Amino acid sequence: PEPPKKPSNWRRKHEEFIATIRAAKGLNLKDGGKLPPPPPPSYDPDYIQCPYCQRRFNENAADRHINFCKEQAARITNKGKLAADTKGKLPTRTQYKPTPVKKIPSVGSTPSPSSRLPQPSGVSKTVVGASSSKALSSSGSSGSKIQTLSPAHK
């Protein structure tokens, strides 16, 4: 027992297609005239029209869509009623204004240790144990030379 087959409507579709092609061939766009109105859309008689959005679907899709569209239409009408009721009211949002942060300038502030850039220091860099007038100091038998930084290298 197979389900009965629906009658084919290929001939009607074919005739609509031929009519559309003939109408397009007769159209001359080089004249610059207005376009003729488009042909009316052809509706498949097997399709079911949605009562909410007027679109057409096959049986399975129509069952699913009509339930969905019914809920959406109910939501949209409720939103429209709420928007109409609140038009006369003032907005309930409050504008937030944070209190300004007061910065106290410090005279001898040191840069934060998290900074990766080299920061100038107020302390002169001299090597301990060496005189600033001497460039080299050779004390002891180890032979190590200790240098002081010249003002040009600071």
Automatic annotation (TrEMBL):
UniProt-annotated stretches for the region Disordered: 24-43, 79-154
InterPro entries, per database record: ZC2HC1A/B-like (IPR026319), Znf_C2HC_C3H (IPR049899)
Domain C2HC/C3H-type, first and last residues per copy: 46-75
Bias-annotated ranges (Low complexity): 129-145
Keyword Metal-binding: yes
GO molecular function, one term: zinc ion binding
Keywords of the record: Metal-binding, Repeat, Zinc, Zinc-finger
Top-level division of the source organism's lineage: Eukaryota
Keyword Secreted tagged: no
Alphabetized PANTHER family for the sequence: C2H2 ZINC FINGER CGI-62-RELATED (PTHR13555), ZINC FINGER C2HC DOMAIN-CONTAINING PROTEIN 1A (PTHR13555:SF25)
Similarity remark: Belongs to the ZC2HC1 family.
Official protein name in the record: Zinc finger C2HC domain-containing protein 1A
